[in-house]
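Title: Comparing notes on inverse folding

I've been comparing how different people in this forum approach sequence design from structure. To keep things fair, I'm posting one structure and asking everyone to reply with a full sequence. Here's the target:
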C-alpha cells in the first residue's frame, strides 16, 4: 500500500507559503487537538512541515465498561473475583496524550526529483482495567522515522520512470505496570524499494520492482514476550495492465524470501511466499461495469505468531507462539458491479476466500497463573487467559454494498440518500467459527448541500455477533446515530475557513467491537459533541 502524505513533495507548489491549521474539541474524551501544516516552494525547491498535539481525558461511555457476565465467562482472572469496580458511564485509565511532527524537503526538476524527511511520534495511553483493583497499565510509545525518495524520468530506453525509496525506523514502546517497565518492544528497521515503470509496450503498461526489509525486533523485560530476532525479507514484484476494447486486464506477481533468526534457544526459520493475481474490468455500457479478480496469495507468519511466550498487557493475555507454523495460502475470488445513472448509483462487491493454514489466536481452556508463573487447568491465583497461535483451514465470504439516490436538486439545495451494508463470515473447514469477526452492519445516510453549507445524518445498525468462536463471548447489537455539519466561510485573503460540528453516538449506545481483544472491558465512546475550525491558505 502506497500512502501519499506529501512529506517528501513530488511537485513544487504554486506558492511560496501555504498550509492549514485545525483545532477541535470532543466532549466524550474531553479531547483537545491541534494540527498545523506548512508547505510551499519556489523554482526547483519544495518543503513540507506538519505537527499535531492531542490531549484527551478518560472516555465517557454509554454504560458500564466491563460486560461482567461475558468477562467472567471468558476471563479466568474474573471467574472467582468479588464485586468489580465497574463505574457507569466512564472508562477509567483511557486518557491519552500524543504529539508528532515531520519535516521534509525536495528538489524537483524535469529530470526527476530527490528528497528526504524526518517524522517523529510520541504517544502515551492507558489499558482499561479489569475492575479487580490491580495496578494500572499504560503504554509509552516513541517512533522516529527517516525517509529518502528519488525519482528519474525516462532514465533510459523503454523506461518511463525509476523510483527509489529508502527508510529507517526506530520504534519503541514500553508497557508500564504501575509506572514500572514490564515489557519493552523494540524494532529497528531498514526498508528499501526500487520501482521501474516501463513505457507502453504495445498495449502493456506496468511496474516491476524490488523491496527489502531488514529489522531487529525484540520484546524483552520483566515480562519478556518475544526473543530478540533479526528479520530479513526480500521481494520481487510486477504488475502489468492492458486495455482491449471494453475490457481492462491486470496481472500481478510477487515472490518473497523471509528469514527470522532468533537470538534465544529457537531455531531459525525461513519462508518463500509466492503470490499472483489476475483481474478484468468490463465496461458493459456507460451505466454498467463488471469486475472480476482471482488471486492466490501467501503470507509468512509474523514473529509474534512464531515465538511469543509471555504476558501481553495490551491484550490482557498470556501469548504462546508456535515455531512450527506454515505459511498461509489463500485463494480469493472477488466479483464487483457498478451502476451509474442520473436516478441512482450502486456498488456491490462479493468475495469468497479459501485459506489453507489460516493463522489466528486461539483462546485455550488452560490459564496462566501469574503468581506461580505456570500454566494451570484451573486457576488457583491471579490468572490470565492463554492465546495460542494456531492454524486451520478456513473459508471467508461476504459482501459490501452501497446505493445512492438523489432526492432533490434545486434552488433549495441538493439532497441524497445512501443505503449501505457489509458482512463477513469466517468458518473453519472442520467446523466452528473464526474468532473476532465483525457482525452484519447496515444503515442509511442522508446528505444535504447548499452553497457553503453541508450536513449529514448517518444511522448504522450492527447486529449481535453470536458466531464468536471457542471460549469467546457474544457481542450485543447496537444502533449508532451520528450527525455532522460543515460551513465554509467566504475566502478571505486566499484563506479558506471551515467550521465543523459532529454529534456522535446520539443514542448513547454501549457499543462493543466484536473484533477487539478488549471488547469485554472497553466499549466505544458514548454520546459526544465535537466542534472545530480548519483554516487552509
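Reply #1:
Here's my take.
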Amino acid at each position: 500500500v502506497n500512502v501519499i502524505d506529501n512529506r517528501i513533495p513530488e511537485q513544487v507548489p504554486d506558492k511560496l507559503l501555504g498550509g492549514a491549521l485545525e483545532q477541535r474539541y470532543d466532549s466524550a474524551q474531553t479531547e483537545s487537538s491541534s494540527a498545523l501544516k506548512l508547505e510551499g516552494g519556489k523554482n526547483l525547491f519544495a518543503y513540507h512541515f506538519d505537527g499535531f498535539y492531542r490531549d484527551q481525558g478518560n472516555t465517557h461511555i454509554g454504560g458500564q465498561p466491563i460486560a461482567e457476565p461475558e468477562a467472567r465467562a471468558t476471563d479466568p482472572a474474573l471467574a472467582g473475583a468479588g464485586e468489580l469496580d465497574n463505574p457507569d458511564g466512564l472508562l477509567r485509565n483511557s486518557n491519552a496524550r500524543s504529539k508528532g511532527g515531520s519535516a521534509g524537503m525536495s528538489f524537483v526538476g524535469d529530470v526527476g526529483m530527490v528528497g528526504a524527511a524526518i517524522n517523529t511520534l510520541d504517544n502515551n495511553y492507558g489499558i482499561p482495567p479489569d475492575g479487580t483493583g490491580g495496578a494500572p497499565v499504560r503504554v509509552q510509545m516513541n517512533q522516529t522515522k527517516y525517509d529518502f525518495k528519488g525519482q528519474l524520468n525516462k532514465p533510459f530506453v523503454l523506461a518511463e520512470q525509476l523510483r527509489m525509496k529508502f527508510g529507517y525506523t526506530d520504534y519503541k514502546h514500553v508497557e508500564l505496570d504501575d509506572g514500572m517497565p514490564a515489557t519493552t518492544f523494540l524494532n529497528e528497521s531498514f526498508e528499501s524499494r526500487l520501482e521501474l515503470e516501463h513505457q507502453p509496450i504495445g498495449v502493456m503498461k506496468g511496474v516491476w520492482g524490488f523491496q527489502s526489509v531488514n529489522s531487529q525486533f525484540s520484546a524483552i523485560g520483566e515480562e519478556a514476550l518475544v526473543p530478540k530476532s533479526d528479520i530479513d525479507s526480500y521481494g520481487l514484484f510486477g504488475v502489468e495492465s492492458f486495455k482491449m476494447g471494453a475490457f481492462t486486464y491486470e496481472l500481478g506477481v510477487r515472490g518473497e524470501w523471509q528469514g527470522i533468526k532468533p537470538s534465544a534457544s529457537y531455531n531459525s526459520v525461513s519462508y518463500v511466499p509466492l503470490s499472483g493475481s489476475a483481474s478484468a474490468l468490463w465496461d458493459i455500457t456507460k451505466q454498467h461495469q463488471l469486475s472480476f479478480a482471482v488471486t492466490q496469495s501467501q503470507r509468512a507468519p509474523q514473529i509474534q505468531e512464531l515465538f511469543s511466550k509471555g504476558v501481553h498487557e495490551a491484550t490482557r493475555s498470556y501469548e504462546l507462539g508456535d515455531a512450527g507454523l506454515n505459511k498461509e495460502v489463500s485463494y480469493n475470488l472477488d466479483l464487483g458491479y457498478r451502476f451509474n445513472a442520473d436516478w441512482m448509483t450502486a456498488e456491490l462487491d462479493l468475495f469468497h476466500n479459501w485459506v489453507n493454514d489460516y493463522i489466528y489466536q486461539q483462546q485455550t481452556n488452560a490459564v496462566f497463573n501469574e503468581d506461580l508463573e505456570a500454566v494451570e487447568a484451573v486457576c488457583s491465583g491471579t490468572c490470565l487467559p492463554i492465546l495460542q497461535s494456531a492454524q486451520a483451514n478456513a473459508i471467508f465470504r461476504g459482501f459490501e454494498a452501497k446505493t445512492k439516490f438523489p432526492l432533490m436538486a434545486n434552488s433549495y439545495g441538493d439532497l441524497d440518500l445512501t443505503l449501505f451494508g457489509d458482512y463477513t463470515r469466517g468458518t473453519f473447514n472442520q467446523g466452528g467459527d473464526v474468532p473476532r469477526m465483525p457482525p452484519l452492519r447496515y444503515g442509511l445516510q442522508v446528505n444535504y448541500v447548499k452553497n457553503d453549507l453541508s450536513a449529514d445524518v448517518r444511522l448504522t445498525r450492527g447486529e449481535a455477533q453470536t458466531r464468536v468462536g471457542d471460549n469467546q463471548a457474544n457481542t450485543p447489537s447496537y444502533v449508532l446515530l451520528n450527525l455532522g455539519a460543515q460551513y465554509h466561510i467566504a475566502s478571505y485573503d486566499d484563506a479558506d475557513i471551515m467550521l465543523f460540528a459532529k454529534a456522535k453516538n446520539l443514542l448513547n449506545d454501549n457499543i462493543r467491537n466484536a473484533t477487539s481483544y478488549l471488547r469485554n472491558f472497553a466499549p466505544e465512546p458514548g454520546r459526544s459533541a465535537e466542534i472545530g475550525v480548519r483554516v487552509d491558505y
